[in-house]
Design goal:
With 858 residues, the chain is an alpha+beta fold. The protein has 27 helices and 20 strands. A hairpin with a 2-residue loop joins strand 16 and strand 17. Helix 10 packs parallel to helix 14.
Length: 858
């Protein structure tokens, strides 16, 4: 590392030019990178939609579902196969092991399906891979009064070809149910057709949507008078809003970081030197991201925004040490090189440990690892760039801008040191009291866990609402249409009042295979609504109002919020298995009755037999898991404390009990939370192990890294305390924040302990080394902690709808750094003094040729 610094200082002009070139290259990479909502992840799922118009559940099960299930027999990597047989359609979802070649699997499934013999009335099954690229980037309705058949012909002949001609469009289609004439769609009360647009994997969502919308604007002039296009789903504005929001938060974070640096240094020149390291590091990280073909999305942008505060840490340590050496006099370049060389080891180790904690994200199985890996890459690349900047650019700028008369870092005894010195002295004289206080605070923080809401992912709101309107089986269709008319009247009123922007209804048949709420297919006794809210609307309040107004008649309305970025975290799913299907159905009905009385849980239903007997004619759907009949209970959790709702559900099930031969399996949010906590616990254990190994190898010691690792529990005090105070949820983002804290916390301890070790090697006692090391490092440690924390304040305060990495993660990191930094400066010296006692003294010769000194060993 010292060689890099030496080369940089020898060619200072070249170093500055290279820095400028990297920043320009990073900016160019930023303009060329694709903008997406979510990372390009290949979900190990394959779905098959098989319409069988006009047939009941029993016929669909026997004629369609069971034969299609055989198409998955023997496919390597298959984890589970779920099927749902509903009126007029069968839906199969196959989940495979993570890492399976899904393109190969899809081709096998399509080949096997072609060999299955189905009734002539069945439509051709549709195979789709479930990943972000398989969902529409744009979904719009085409409206025109008059004969629906004429509208259909116009859309097929003019609209679809024009949309398909746009570069980057993979497909544009209307739902298969419409093709078969088995479903009716209306938008804002008028007959309509829905068009779903999918993009090529390598195309830019924002650009493709923009061109498609331009095409639609020009088409209006050529289509018959009265034709109107209404947008239902559009990913582009959400992507642009997320990018702007995260850019704003990152920019504000950088400004806050620079302000904090100036508050500590109170000098413009050193502040500018450190401030330059922020854009240089972030743009350097972007340059690597562009080289690796990564995209701008919620995860990568979130990673860069989080990294803004951390990338200055190494530069702060280097510059502060450079100043001290320059103040001693002599050649500034020589002093700068000596200063950088002195701290190069500690900052390199601290950066490597921070990077090491993200390695487990690439090792753990499932969607969690794949989903957050781009986030980890973004931070890693920025940190790599920041280390390079700290070892090259900062020394060069420091040697040019800092001189012995600079006032920002002047003085050997600052007010911070005057405050800290008696505190560390007291802690070292009262070791048991200091450690006891830390232990009490740590145990007390664990006691906050029951008081913190627990979820998988925090609610991201969403600007869409789905409504499934169902009338009892056997009800005349005119009753369903009357209920639909009532619902449309309610929604039209909301539209005129400004709460809703657009609403669409699909009644009967197959419905839409795509879009929010997709997968809940229409049937002869149900209708599906999609409601697009206005920006200022309170989605939760609108959903609650619709539940109240639409459940007053014959129909049952299930209302749920949709939209937002990433997986949703509001699904309750329980599956009952057993040879006695009637017993499982009866138990499910008892559970549903109890669950419907719970607060925080809505839309509770079951696909089992109706109470009081009956047969196939009473079923709305039949579920099978791996070929075994199952009764499924579903619901939507609206309480932010998802774990609390799940606990109440578990208690109800235990009170009811399960009959002999019936077993229950929980899915949905409950399974997601369990999996997330298990995976993240494993990641943290691996991360701590890797951090220890990095320090052990670099420090050539077994005990010293243990001292540093013991600082980690101190972070949980502030992390859990901050979540409790703000009542933000402990979920996957917060757990990622905990993982990040492992790397951030040990950074401070490494900077402190490494200097203590150097002072001991020069002959100081343990006590003297701890006092002097603490005094020398207290300011850079506080500066790095404050800059990192304040850089995250915008992300913690400005909660952005739809983002996954945001307020919860920032809250955890800010709280964890607050307590860990304070306690690291006091408790870690105490632990060090206990584990690294005075040893025998040996003589060593200093490089300067001074007389030998006795130094303690051990």
């Amino acid at each position: 590392m010292s060689m890099l610094t030496s080369l940089a200082l020898r060619g200072r002009i070249i170093t500055i030019l290279v820095m400028i070139a990297i920043m320009v290259g990073g900016g160019a990479a930023l303009t060329r990178m694709q903008a997406e909502l979510l990372p390009d992840i290949e979900f190990p799922l394959v779905a098959v939609f098989a319409p069988y118009p006009g047939n009941n559940v029993a016929t669909v099960l026997q004629d369609i579902t069971i034969p299609l299930e055989s198409a998955f027999d023997g496919i390597e990597g298959l984890d589970s196969l779920s099927s749902t047989s509903s009126t007029s359609i069968s839906v199969l979802v196959a989940e495979f092991e993570m890492g399976t070649d899904m393109e190969h699997v899809s081709s096998i499934v399509e080949r096997n399906l072609a060999l299955v013999t189905l009734p002539s009335a069945a439509l051709t099954p549709r195979v789709t891979r479930v990943n972000p690229d398989e969902f529409p980037i744009l979904q719009f309705s085409v409206l025109r009064k008059g004969d629906p058949a004429d509208l259909y012909d116009a859309v097929m002949a003019q609209v679809l070809p024009e949309v398909m001609s746009v570069p980057g469009v993979f497909s544009a289609e209307v739902p298969p149910g419409t093709l078969a004439g088995t479903s009716v769609t209306r938008t804002n009360g008028q007959p309509s057709l829905t068009v779903s647009v999918l993009k090529d994997p390598d195309s830019n969502t924002v650009e493709v949507v923009s061109v498609v919308q331009e095409k639609l604007e020009s088409l209006v002039e050529t289509l018959p008078a009265g034709t109107e296009f209404i947008t239902l789903v559009n990913q582009a504005p959400e992507i642009e809003a997320s990018i702007k929001s995260l850019q704003r938060e990152a920019t504000l974070g950088a400004v806050f970081a620079v302000i904090i640096i100036f508050a500590f240094l109170f000098s413009v020149r050193p502040t500018l030197v450190i401030g330059i390291s922020i854009p240089a590091s972030i743009l350097g990280g972007l340059l690597i991201m562009g080289w690796q073909g990564m995209t701008l999305n919620l995860m990568t942008l979130g990673g860069l925004a989080i990294a803004v505060g951390r990338v200055v840490d190494d530069s702060i340590v280097v510059l502060e040490n450079v100043y001290k050496h320059i103040q001693r006099g002599g050649d500034r370049v020589v002093a700068t090189f000596a200063a950088t060389k002195e701290v190069a080891g500690p900052i390199t180790v601290s950066t490597l440990t921070t990077i090491a904690v993200f390695v487990p994200l690439g090792l753990i199985d499932g969607i969690i690892g794949s989903f957050f890996l781009p986030f980890a890459y973004a931070i890693t690349f920025a940190l790599m760039a920041s280390l390079l900047v700290a070892l090259t650019v900062v020394p060069v700028l420091g040697s040019l801008f800092i001189n012995p008369t600079s006032s920002g870092m002047a003085g050997k005894d600052t007010w911070i040191q005057r405050t800290y010195t008696p505190a560390i002295g007291w802690a070292l004289r009262h070791k048991l009291t200091s450690i006891g206080l830390a232990v009490v605070l740590f145990v007390g923080s664990l006691g906050l866990l029951p008081l913190i809401p627990i979820t998988f992912l925090p609610s991201s709101g969403g600007d869409l609402i789905t409504v499934n309107l169902t009338v009892p089986r056997g009800t005349e269709q005119k009753i369903l249409l009357e209920e639909v008319a009532v619902a449309e009247a309610v929604l039209e009123r909301m539209r005129l009042e400004g709460a809703a922007e657009t609403y669409q209804v699909t009644a009967g048949g197959v419905g839409s295979l795509f879009g929010p709420g997709g997968g809940r297919e229409g049937s002869s006794n149900s209708a599906n609504f999609l409601v697009v809210l206005n920006e200022d609307s309170d989605g939760e309040a609108v959903a609650m109002a619709l539940r109240e107004e639409l459940n007053r008649g014959v129909a049952t309305a299930q209302v749920a919020q949709a939209g937002g970025g990433g997986p949703q975290d509001n699904l309750l799913e329980l599956r009952l298995f057993g040879d006695a299907y009637e017993a499982a159905s009866a138990t499910a009905n008892l559970i549903v009755t109890k669950l419907r009385q719970m607060d925080g849980l809505v839309n509770v239903s079951t696909d089992g037999l109706a109470p009081g007997g009956g047969g196939w004619e009473d079923l709305t759907a039949v579920s099978r898991i791996n070929g075994q009949r199952a009764v499924t209970i579903t619901g939507s959790i609206i309480d932010p404390n998802v774990n609390q709702v799940n606990s109440q559900v578990t208690k109800i099930i235990e009170e009811i009990g399960l009959p002999r031969g019936v077993t229950l399996e929980a899915g949905g949010a409950s399974a997601d939370i369990d999996e997330a906590f298990k995976q993240m616990a494993l990641a943290m254990v691996i991360g701590i192990g890797l951090v220890y190994l990095v320090m052990m190898v670099s420090m050539r010691s077994l005990i010293t890294p243990i001292v540093i690792v013991l600082s980690l529990p101190l972070a949980s005090i502030g992390a859990l305390g901050a979540l409790y105070i703000t009542q933000r949820t402990l979920g996957l983002p917060a757990l990622i924040g905990m993982l990040m804290l492992i790397g951030l916390v040990v950074t401070n301890a490494i900077v402190l302990v490494s200097l203590v070790e150097q002072l001991r090697a020069q002959g100081m006692s343990v006590y003297e080394s701890l006092i002097e090391g603490g005094r020398a490092r207290v300011r850079p440690i506080l500066m790095t902690a404050f800059t990192t924390s304040f850089a995250l304040v915008p992300m913690a305060v400005f909660v952005t709808e739809g983002t996954i990495i945001g307020a919860e993660l920032a809250t955890v990191v800010i709280g964890g750094l607050a307590t860990s930094t304070f306690l690291t400066l006091l408790v870690i010296p105490v632990v060090y003094s206990l584990l690294r006692r005075e040893g025998r003294r040996v003589t060593t010769r200093k490089p300067s040729g001074d007389a030998p000194k006795a130094v303690p060993t051990g």
